[in-house]
Specification:
The protein is α/β, with parallel strands linked by helices. It has three domains: about 5-115, Tetrapyrrole methylase, N-terminal domain (Cobalt-precorrin-4 Transmethylase, domain 1, 3-Layer(aba) Sandwich), CATH 3.40.1010.10; about 115-225, 2-Layer Sandwich (Methyltransferase, Cobalt-precorrin-4 Transmethylase, Domain 2); about 230-274. About 45% of the residues lie in helices and about 20% in strands. It contains twelve helices and ten strands. It has helices spanning about 20-30, 35-45, 60-75, 95-100, 115-125, 140-150, 165-175, 200-210, 225-230, 235-245, 250-260, 265-274; strands at about 5-10, 30-35, 55, 80, 105-110, 130-135, 155-160, 180-185, 195-200, 220. It has a five-stranded parallel β-sheet, with helices on both faces. The protein has a five-stranded mixed β-sheet with strand order 6-7-10-8-9. Helix 6 packs across helix 7 (about 165-175) and helix 10 packs antiparallel against helix 11. The longest helix is centred in the N-terminal third of the chain and has 12 residues, at about 60-75. It is elongated.
């Protein structure tokens, strides 16, 4: 094979989603760099792939990355895989890719399963524009602050979340983003797959009422900011958020109306109703 780094997508649950090209690549490279060698051993055994495996993960040292680069420089081919889905998406693989790009070492993607695009395709929310946020901060204050910064984002929002924080995260999303349309996509391609579309308030009730929904891999999608629902543009929303914390609502609305050209009455009413 050509001496390069192959970015190989692997199934997110259903092994039938493994592509022929991915299987052939993993068989033919000199070495596979895996996020969790024990986890990947099951996948490789299933497809009778006997290529040597080394570890590459979030805690890999610069020296370990350098050893992989040395193999590439010497003419070896390496396949990078993560525990599930496409490597480098919310995954430390990007550091190895960046190091290869810096030295103009060839990087070749072997596309396939991705929980992000799978969820987007089945959620029924707008797909022409989307914003992938990944995991929100674990600390509640930082999580709320990050969501506030996303309020005016007009694209569909995509999040990863751990099952133990799912219910709380949905509640915070409802507070900070409003009761928007959203979708919960859990355990995709697996036997207990759940794709539930509702407003955030409905998803909170759904998750609270079924503890099974607080298990497994989770993707949350939330409708982006829709100015037509509030008569307030995204830019005006941002200004109102900032000024309303320091000025009386009517004064804040008047200033934003002067800058944006929007109706001061609509802006003032939005502040009263938020």
């Amino acid at each position: 094979m050509t001496a390069c780094l192959y970015i190989v997508a692997t199934p997110i649950g259903n092994l039938g989603d493994m592509t022929l090209r991915a299987t052939e690549t993993l068989r033919e490279v000199d070495v596979i760099a895996a996020e969790d060698t024990r986890h990947s051993a099951k996948l490789l055994a299933h497809f009778d792939i006997r290529t040597p495996v080394v570890s590459y993960h979030d805690h890999s040292t610069p020296a370990e990355i350098e050893r992989l680069l040395d193999r590439l420089r010497a003419g070896d081919s390496i396949a990078l895989i993560c525990d599930a889905g496409t490597p480098t998406i919310s995954d430390p693989g990007y550091r190895l890719v960046a190091a290869c790009q810096a030295e103009q070492l060839l990087v070749v993607p072997i596309p396939g399963p991705s929980s992000m695009t799978a969820a987007l395709s089945a959620a029924g929310l707008p797909t022409d524009r989307f914003h992938f946020e990944g995991f929100l901060p674990a600390k509640s204050g930082q999580r709320s602050h990050r969501l506030k910064n996303l309020r005016a984002q007009e694209a569909t929002l995509i999040f990863f979340e751990s099952p133990r924080r799912l219910a709380k995260t949905l509640e915070v999303m409802s507070i900070e983003l409003g009761d928007r349309e959203a979708a919960l996509c859990r355990e995709m391609t697996k036997s207990h797959e759940t794709i539930r579309r509702d407003r955030l308030s409905g998803l909170i009730e759904f998750v609270r009422g079924d503890l099974n929904q607080q298990r497994g891999e989770v993707v949350i999608l939330v409708q982006g900011f829709d100015a037509s629902e509030s008569n307030v543009s995204a830019d005006a929303w941002i200004w109102l958020e900032r000024l309303a914390s320091e000025l009386p609502p009517r004064r804040a609305a008047a200033i934003v109306a002067e800058v944006t050209g929007q109706s001061a009455r609509d802006l003032y009413q939005w502040l009263l109703n938020r």
